[in-house]
Every structure is written in structure tokens, then in C-alpha cells.
Amino acid sequence: MIPLHHDAHFTFRFADDRIIPRFHLEGVKAGQRVSIFKMDPETGKRLGLLATATVGQGGWVDLAKPIVVRAGEGFIAVPFNDPIIRPEQSADHAAIFEVNRLAFGQDAEARLVDALRDGGYVRASLVAETDGQVVGHILFSDLRIITDTGTIPALALAPMAVLPEFQKQGIGSALVRTGLAHCQEQGHRIVIVLGHPNFYPRFGFSAKLAESLSSPFGGGEVWMAAELVPGSLGGVAGQVEYAPPFRVFEK
Question: Which domains does the chain have, with CATH numbers?
Fold first, then answer.
């Protein structure tokens, strides 16, 4: 096992096939979390996430499940610091576009962010930053619930994105949790999301709360709402209307 670099990122390359149950990181303290990425053998760039682990005594990292590395290939172990979650700044716009483009594998969501910002519909836009790099983004924009008795203001959570190589490290959860708290502090009461039913309920989103709200994108278990103020959706029924830039996604 030959480490090619001894800096913030530890790279290991092998001349033959190896099954790696543990490895050593020189100078890294016990208790430090690390992410282990597959390495592109040609460029040395990080590819997919292989595992996460915690450094033990003496700098040894024991993996819950051994990783397989083929001859000529390798992996990169990256000590991971909790990201800083902060409001976006104008200097972040290009990085936010790239985060959304790479996370979704297309430009549509990245262009949506720009359109919502340019149209003045954004109520909260936060980024996750680690080691000076923007690695995640979440956006909340104006949304209206049209009822028989009037219009109720709410927020749409969309999009939320994390760079592929930084996913499955808790960054998305940190963005959602901090974003909702930020919106609550601003006095917002209701947030709507169309998202993964195994992810968003842990933050208070519920398909049941959204049952009486008609969605332009289809309903079911992926259509969820959260009350930032308990009882805000009590007795509320109506049609959800997103900001105009969302219309390109409507069915």
C-alpha cells in the first residue's frame, strides 16, 4: 500500500488486486471522520463514494465492509469536517449552478435557481461549504395555496442538491434542517416539497399533511408538507401554485 500524497487528502494506489479491510492515515487524530472515494487511475480525481469511517487509535481506519481495489487503481481518503451552512452570496452563484447541474445530471434545476433568483421569488437560499468549497445548496421560494376563502402564503423547498462526491455524508440533512430553522425564524409557516419519502419525513414533512393540497406535479407519498408553526395546515384545502419559473416542470 503506497500513499502517493501526505496532505489533507490521502491517496493509495496498488500494483495488484487488493481487498482492503483497514488502512493507516499518518498524522490524523483518532475520532476524525473520513470519506473514502474511488480514484480515477488516469487523472487521480475522486469518483464515487466507497465508504465512510472514523479514524481509530494510532491512525488506523477499520472499514465496516472491506473495499476491493483492482491492480493499477486506488482510493482517496478525505478527512471530513462538518460543513458550514450559510446564506448564499453573489460570489456563490456560479458554484451553486455547478452543484445543481452535477447533482441532477442536467441543467434544468440549475437554470430554475437562476430564474427564481432573477424573478425575486427566493425567500431563502443556503449553501454548504467545506474547506472553502461550495458542495451543497438548498432553496426556498414563494408558493401560494389557493383556497375557496383566500390565498395562504407558503414556501416551496426546491431544489436541494449536493455534489455527487459529497453525498451520503449528512450534508443534505444539514441543509434541510438549517434551512427550515432559517425559514421559521423569518416567520414562514408552511413548506411544501416534492421529494424522497424516505428522506424528508425525518424533518417533519408528511404526505398526510399534503393530502388536501392539489399538486401540479402529481401527488402520492412524494408530495409532502411541513408545518413550521403547528396547526398551520389545519382545515386548509386548495390548489398549490408555484412561482412561474416552475411551470416548465408542470405536467
Answer: 2-79 (2.60.120.820), 84-249 (3.40.630.30)
